[in-house]
Amino acid sequence: MADHFEAPELNDLHAANRQRDTTENGSCLTGHEGKFRKKKNKSTCNYRYQAYEQALAENAIRLRLESYQTSKVITTSVYQTEAGGWAPSYYCATLPIPDPANKDWHVIGPTKAITRGTLSNQQRTIPSEMNFSQDTWPYWNNAHHLIPKGLFNSMIESQDEPVPNVMRKALMTAKYNINHKINMFLLPQDKEVAAILHLTRHIQLRHDDARVAEIFTDHPVYNRMVKQLLNSIITDYKQICDKPSPDGHKIPKADLDKAKLEKLSDTLMHRILDWGIETPGASLDSKADDADFVFGD
Q: What secondary structure does DSSP assign to 48-79, as a single string?
């Protein structure tokens, strides 16, 4: 497993706390594992596995994902690239009408395998009970970090030395995991799919419902909103991490409580569920742009 930190002590701590075949007791501050093909590679660091387990465990999410009723073929949100191809090329332009009896879109589904064509002119089969093990099964979907991993790390990195590594060590010692299921939410990318499920979609893409231009890899407005909510938590952590004195070649110890971070994740999950009812099919950025809630004690 590749190193993630310049300090060997942090890499050792991360590796020692990585757990297999469970969502619990890991500590990880980076989104470095996401492959879940055939539902393998179950570890505390694997964010798609964690998002899948959250969809199974959190009734509010599972109910929304499995409440699909439509009688029409669905147009997907694939887009043409500057090179003239399609992205994702292994996806399709339209989805057949989903069959609830076959659990076509269920978290544990489908009951029977589904074969469909792709934009690359190949046939792809979704094996039974393999939904959400890949990003286009049963539809284009992403494992969304409620507290975005890049934002979280940049806010830690922006602190004055030696605070960043003191904070990282303290969070991993407290068994904080940015990839834990409580911080994960399986969201559709297709606008029509999201509308059917009464969910927001993950990324803006080329739809024009937000005050940002075409965006394909991030959600900057949502990030700015979460940054405002994270500020007080990181500020409190900084005050604690400023106090320990250097201890030779070792990173100083500080005690941090991960509860506020996990509470923020839970708050964001419920807000996204509310957004899906308010404006089915909207993007995260279009809703976060006019977010009207404040996180606190």
A: HHHHHHHHHH-HHHHHHHT-----S-EE---E
H/E stretch holding 266 reads helix 259-278
* 294 DSSP 8-state letter: -
**Are 187 and 199 a contacting pair, CB within 8 Å?**
yes
pLDDT in tens, 205-245: 999 998 888 888 899 999 999 999 999 999 999 999 998 87
Q: Can you tell me the distance from the alpha carbon of 169 to that of 156, in angstroms, rounded to the nearest whole number? A: 11
32: DSSP letter: -
CB within 8 Å of 239: residues ≥ 6 apart: none
Does the predicted model carry a pTM greater than 0.90?
yes
CB atoms within 10 A of CB 296: 9
Q: What number is the average pLDDT over the span 157-174? A: 96
pLDDT of residue 297: 46
Q: For 122-149, how does the pLDDT look when each residue is reduced to its tens digit (9 = 90+)?
A: 899 999 999 999 999 999 999 999 999 9
Q: 148 Cβ partners below 8 Å, 6+ apart?
A: 219, 222, 223, 226
For the record, the structure tokens of 3 come out as 């190193």
In the chain, which ranges are E strands?
74-75, 79-80, 86-87, 94-95, 114-117, 123-126, 141-145, 184-188
Count other C-beta atoms under 10 Å from residue 89's C-beta. 13
Closest to 137 (Cα-Cα) out of 119, 155, 115:
115
Give me the pLDDT at residue 4, please.
75
Cβ-contact 105, 66 below 8 angstroms: yes
Paired tokens of 93: 């332009």
Read off the pLDDT band of 271 (50, 70, 90): very high
